[in-house]
From TrEMBL:
It is a multi-pass membrane protein. Pheophytin a binds at Q155, N168. PSII is composed of 1 copy each of membrane proteins PsbA, PsbB, PsbC, PsbD, PsbE, PsbF, PsbH, PsbI, PsbJ, PsbK, PsbL, PsbM, PsbT, PsbX, PsbY, PsbZ, Psb30/Ycf12, at least 3 peripheral proteins of the oxygen-evolving complex and a large number of cofactors. It forms dimeric complexes. InterPro entries: D1/D2, Photo_II_D1/D2_sf, Photo_RC_L/M, Photo_RC_L/M_CS, PSII_PsbD/D2. It is found in: Membrane; Plastid, Chloroplast thylakoid membrane. Chlorophyll a PD2 binds at H223. A plastoquinone binds at H240, F287. Gene3D superfamilies: Photosystem II protein D1-like (1.20.85.10). The gene is psbD. Belongs to the reaction center PufL/M/PsbA/D family. This is Photosystem II D2 protein. It comes from Chromerida sp. RM11. Pfam families: Photo_RC. Chlorophyll a ChlzD2 binds at H143.
Amino acid sequence: MAINSNSFGLSRLGDNVFTGAYAQSYPYSYSAGLSTELGAFGLLDDWLKRDRFVFVGWSGLLLFPTAYLALGGWFTGTTFVSSWYSHGLASSYLEGCNFLTAAVSSPANSMGHSLLLLWGPEAQGDFARWCQLGGLWTFVAFHGSFALIGFCLRQFEIARLVGIRPYNAIAFSGPISIFVSVFLIYPLGQASWFFAPSFGVAAIFRFLLFLQGFHNWTLNPFHMMGVAGILGGALLCAIHGATVENTLFQDGDAADTFRAFTPTQSEETYSMVTANRFWSQIFGVAFSNKRWLHFFMLFVPVTGLWTSAFGMVGLALNLRAYDFVSQELRAAEDPEFETFYTKNILLNEGIRAWMAAQDQPHENFIFPEEVLPRGNAL
């Protein structure tokens, strides 16, 4: 039986968005009431793209199940599952942890890079054993990865339907690149999933200390570019918001600029010309148009995220950060010479020496006192 596209009495996202020349470019911009014969695939396509409170779309078939499972796995792990068998730690609310210290911990080092499927040779269908081995971590990591990709595709799909450019999806590629490089690529380059970050607040702090101690991450140029991008993006966001608020002009009978507009009005109520004059006086230069300004606000943080992701891929391969060997050699020979760089190198040695035994209990590390680092100032 043929079903027309509006037999449900609902509109599709994208209906009546465009008129004129642009309407030909978007297949979903037909006017309401136009009857179109649909097959089974067309019927599914039509249902998925209905304009409803929570849009589904084709991307939703990937996003909603994977996001649900990833979040469900994380809540289950942080509530009930111990990390005693993988890290020698308590990591759940059941064991006394709080929101900041609970985590879904990465699998034991002996598991290597196994996917740790519930029905695999490690767990053999035993759910409790699967949790003890760290199966929830791979479950959350991979479902989370696909959920992020699904959310990116959702932004792309909706942008296509309403007829705007896909820059939101492009911007969201930054967080995706960070997640994939940190949680998947880095441990794949190391010995096992064990060296990936566990999913928890304090667990991420532990991972940051590990990156500093074992990779000198803060002196890595890709980390520096990432910091510049993220903090630069925050600065640009603050400056932009303040400037727009500063240049609001009165658009009614209100007595002051705080009452000069209503949050839901569509009209613009700030002056780009005044903002341009202000920043021209501050710096001597200013953005000449809104498109260039907003592209810059997009470019800076997204580039920072991508450069950090490139740096993490380098760490997966154990590529080194900057090192200034001449300073290290002089500090070794001259008891009165120490720089912030050589001090940080000693601190990294301390992190490795004191952290390794606690962080990797399966290795049974024992460091005698004489090998622990001592700086020239000690």
